[in-house]
Amino acid sequence: MNIEQEFYLFLKERKGLHRLFDAWITQYERLGYAGGSVVVENVKQEEMEAIGTFLGCDLRKQKQIHIYWRQMQKAMDNSRFSTCNIEEVFTLWKGKPLRNKKEERRKKEEFENKMIEKVLEETKDTYFPMWWELQKKQYPEFFHKVKKLLLEDKETLLLCIQAIEQLPYLTHNKKPLAVFAAEISKDPHFFDKGMSYQMLYKGICYRMKKEEPNTLEEKNKLFYDAGLIRDDISNYCMLCHINAEIENQGHAGWNGVSVK
Question: Which residues make beta-bridge pairs with 37?
Answer without folding.
Answer: 68
